[in-house]
Specification:
Layout: E1 8-9, E2 12-13, E3 21-23, E4 26-28, E5 34-38, H1 44-63, E6 70-73, H2 78-84, H3 90-99, E7 101-104, H4 118-125, E8 130-136, E9 152-158, E10 168-169, H5 174-185, E11 196-197, H6 203-220, E12 224-229, H7 238-252, E13 257-259, H8 260-267, E14 276-282, H9 283-292, E15 299-302, H10 304-317, E16 325-329, E17 334-338, H11 355-367, H12 371-386, E18 389-390, H13 392-395, E19 402-403, H14 406-415
Parallel strand pairs: 5-6, 5-7, 7-17, 9-15, 12-14, 12-15, 13-14, 18-19
Antiparallel strand pairs: 1-2, 3-4, 8-9, 8-16, 10-11, 16-17
Helix pairs in contact: 1-11, 1-12, 1-14, 6-7, 9-10, 11-12, 12-14
The structure holds NADP nicotinamide-adenine-dinucleotide phosphate (NAP).
NADP nicotinamide-adenine-dinucleotide phosphate binds next to loops.
Length: 418
């Protein structure tokens, strides 16, 4: 099955399969999609080897050979630098662009080199504007809170603006001085020994992020979308994010989205079936709400910096930083990735937890519409952790747990499917 693609990338032939196409920002997945993968640096090889077995195992179990993935290795990071003298070869970018959906392990950020971060570069090149981080609890994972199971949120964090715009100038630079002079003409004075950063938040960027969050909530039957902002202080960036988000909900989803005041007035506080509540919270309040009333929140849509903090804080709350999955999604490309780094001291020891890249892969399957395979992985992870069969990082925090190698953890997951 599948077409033969003649073109080579990084000297490698493309395996037989079909391209995923995007229609209106949504992937149309064939039964044998070609999916590029970047193994990742440091522990990347260990976790990718394990993840591939688990993903293939779940697909086989769910679809019995009717569906499979034609995995295609593309290179980035240390492996690419070693083989091609390039941290991010043009062919790797070309292949991801061509095939649309990719998955990656962690990449070393080259220190003092030309590229500031491979991850940031990938997000910018493909305009992956939504960083999506689902955070849920797997029973048995050691957590610092009393009821970690109450938190089940999906965070949509804007990925291209705000502090990720990368507009920043050091103290005493010509640029910083010039901006200060300009500010003086507006009657604003900044201390002369200041570094200057610019925080742009656009209507376009806010709308497409909030649109994606609402569409997700509707598709998944989630009850609410909360706009998280610091609009009480920054009215024309963070506050505007909230206003544009509400306006978009009114304009594009008038029949299905209900604001908090309307919920109280017209529906006596009870959300009708098929509708999604839209509300907003100030970022600092949101941090205490996810701790004190986590079950009141479901999908969170946020500008970049709030989302950065909130994603890790929520993941830590369920004890799952080491197994937290993530994705960077745009309208014609999506890259799924482990959220931790390369953990180089454990490289090639077959000890590290592959959970993050495995669950990112499961998220990818769900995104492609292969939810049966995703569910098999979710259930297997839950079952395996509950049986206290875990890698060193969780074993050291549990009593009576069995410590597994990376490869053994993958094997047990496959055994625990279905
Ligand atoms: P790190 O690689 O995430 O490792 C820090 C510590 O976190 C590890 O020593 C380990 O703790 C724990 N850890 C990380 N991954 C784990 C896993 N899969 N299973 C169990 N424990 C895990 O962070 P870093 O040392 O700051 O960064 C190393 C390199 O990764 C840097 O070059 C950085 O730029 C890069 N990085 C890449 C990404 C990405 O590609 N998305 C993200 C972050 C960092 P213990 O030693 O306590 O066991």
């Amino acid at each position: 099955m599948g077409q033969v693609i003649d073109k080579k990338y990084n000297g490698l032939s493309v395996p037989q399969g079909e391209k995923i196409r995007f229609v209106n920002g949504k992937p149309q997945c064939p039964d044998k999609p070609i999916i590029p993968f970047i193994e990742g640096d440091g522990t990347g090889a260990d976790i990718w080897r394990a993840a591939k077995r688990v993903l293939d195992g779940a697909i086989e179990k769910a679809y019995g050979g009717r569906r499979s993935i034609a995995w295609f290795e593309v290179f980035a990071g240390e492996k690419a630098n070693k083989e091609f003298g390039d941290w991010l070869p043009a062919d790797s970018l070309e292949a991801i662009k061509e095939f649309g959906v990719a998955i990656k392990g962690p990449l070393t950020t080259p220190v003092g080199g030309g590229i500031r971060s491979l991850n940031v570069t990938l997000r910018q090149v493909f305009d992956l504007y939504a960083c999506v981080r689902p955070v849920r609890y797997y029973p048995g994972v050691p957590s610092p809170v009393v009821s970690p199971e109450k938190l089940d949120v999906v965070i949509f964090r804007e990925n291209t603006e705000d502090v990720y715009a990368g507009i920043e100038y050091p103290m005493d630079s010509a640029e910083a001085k010039k901006i200060m002079q300009l500010l003086e003409t507006f009657g604003k004075k900044v201390r002369v020994d200041s570094g200057i950063g610019i925080k742009p938040i656009s209507k376009f960027g806010s709308e497409r992020l909030v649109r994606r969050a609402i569409e997700y909530a509707l598709a998944k039957g989630r009850k609410s979308v909360t706009l998280v902002h610091k609009g009480n202080i920054m009215k024309f960036t963070e506050g505007a994010f909230r206003d544009w988000g509400y306006q978009l909900a009114d304009d594009e989803f008038p029949e299905v989205v209900v604001k908090e005041e309307k919920l109280a007035k017209e529906y006596e506080g009870k959300l009708p079936k098929g509708k999604v509540l839209i509300n907003d919270r100030i970022a600092d309040s949101m941090f205490q709400q996810v701790l004190t009333r986590p079950d009141e929140y479901s999908v969170l849509a946020t500008p970049n910096l709030n989302g950065d903090y909130l994603s890790d804080a929520c993941a830590a709350q369920v004890g799952g930083l080491g197994i937290a999955p993530g994705a960077n999604i745009g309208d014609s490309c999506a890259i799924f990735e482990a959220t931790h780094g390369t953990a180089p001291k454990y490289a090639n020891l077959d000890v590290i937890n592959p959970g993050s890249v495995i669950l990112s892969g499961a998220m990818m399957l769900e995104y492609l519409g292969w939810n049966e395979a995703n569910e098999l992985i979710q259930q297997a992870v839950a079952k395996t952790i509950q049986k206290k069969m875990v890698t060193y990082d969780l074993e050291r925090l549990m009593t009576g747990a069995t410590k597994l190698k990376t490869s053994e953890f993958a094997t047990v997951l496959i055994e625990n499917m279905g």
